[in-house]
Amino acid sequence: MLPLFRHKNTPYFLRFQQNWPRRPYSVEPRPRLKPVTRHVLSSLRAEILKSSDFLDLAGARKPPVYFYEDEPPLLLSYHWSAAATPFPPQACGYLYYHPPPPRAPLGGSLRLRVSSDDALGSDLMLPNGLPWEIVLPRIVRYKHCVGALQRLLEDGLLTTTTVEHCRNVFAGRPLIPRQLIFHLEQPFALSMEQSKLQLTIVGHDKLGSFVKEKLFGDPGARYPFKGAVLARFELSPDRVYFFMRIVKIVSPVVCCEDGYDGGVVAPQEGGFLSYRIGGVTRPWALRIASRSSAASALRLLVDP
Asked: Which of 112, 108, 68 is nearest to 87 (CA)?
């Protein structure tokens, strides 16, 4: 019997393929796979949710959520910077639409209401102290959110006018910025060691950018404190200055330098962000009439 492969260019390992052991072939039919049952949510309106809308996301990584049988699912991520981060054990509850404040129509979001001692429950939180959410501009922009957007429209939680308004405001932005500020009372997360604070301010019909370098850093590029806080902007009673109030200490603020007496002042919950200048402690203040880009951005949040 002639060998199966005789050509001189045939790879060596193939010339002896006829001697390889062969797996027995089975003619038995394979068992039919069971159809996958999709968990389709009935609504995103908090007051009409059903027990069947309950979601158990504990430990899940990018779990799919369906709003329609024939639409692709919405893949949920617990943390935007690490999509593979699993949801925490307490991530069990109901996905719902958190409506925006009256003066910030684009500030709505999807949140997860988890059970708690409170009869109304509480929202799932992130490690930085802010609620876990998917903000409206992302729902409107990204294709994988099309099912959620359609459900919001059908539930009467959104109007086509609001959707078009959102698209116009964020037109030309290939990606939705990470930190969006829709109103003055909205808190944002700060780390005592971050080198730059960068916020995108969402006005009625345009966007602004607030940037501040070395928020908790000395001129010598030293960061004497560790910790994390929540802060928000505040307008002075005479509407002349913007201040930054510390809303909450998320993780303890600790000084890393013995005997530190530089210009950075340890933040106090309920107090203003302050600096020590010439031995005098003064709050950070930005004049509302300033021509700086930061002041121009924050003016978008102030009623005319």
From this structure: 112
